Amino acid sequence: MDAEVRSLVYLALGKWVTYLGLVGLTGAVCLRQLVGSVGIEPRVYPTVERLLVSLASYANGLVIVAVVARLYAQTFSVFGLDEPVTLELLRVVGFESRWGSQWLLHAAVAILVGMATMMVRSRVRLGWNALAVFTVVLWLTLPLTGHAMSFSDPSFLWAIQVSHGLAAGAWIGTLFALFLVGSFLCESDPRSG
After folding, report:
1. Given 108, 122, 132, 189, which residue has the most CB atoms within 10 angstroms?
2. pLDDT tier at 192 (50, 70, 90 boundaries)?
3. pLDDT digits (tens, 9 = 90+) for 37-66
């Protein structure tokens, strides 16, 4: 495969994994908020909670992997066409470029999402609220490393991408979380046979 094509594949794959993780996180948070506001059967609640915590954890893992993958993909697209990607080149792109300064903000928020996910797993009282806030902030920082930032006034494009991402995450992510929880509950319910 040609290096330019490989570069585009790496960039697209990193973005897709980012979106997959963010949609999963958003779905877990949204369904948890819905479940918390609706009275569900007490014997079912721990199972639902456990499944949503698992979904949030796996989605957070995807986000962390995607943050690193996007740094590699960006470095490859800048330098990898002519020379192999090294740690020094990763450092240059991640810490000394315009893209890297925006990526650092996104990576820092991804780490905060990871900490909030650990709070949820540890059953800290404010864990889900912190995860919800940091998930929204992660959506806010995602467009900072995209093509919209190359325009002279990217605010409108940034707002469109953030609102579109949040809406898609809330819709598709919540449907996926509901499907996951519903499938598991139907499978484990002896009356569903």
Report:
1. 132
2. low
3. 777 777 778 889 999 999 999 999 999 999
- What's the CA dihedral at 170, 174, 177, 183 to 10 degrees? -160
- Which residue ranges make up each domain of the chain? 3-185
DSSP 101-151: HHHHHHHHHHHHHHHHHHHHHTT-TTHHHHHHHHHHHHHHHGGGGSGGGGS
Alpha-carbon 9 to chain mean position: 19
- Give pLDDT, residue 153: 79
Q: Name the H helices within the chain.
A: 3-37, 45-75, 87-96, 98-121, 127-141, 155-168, 174-188
Nearest 5°: the CA angle 64, 163, 109 is 25
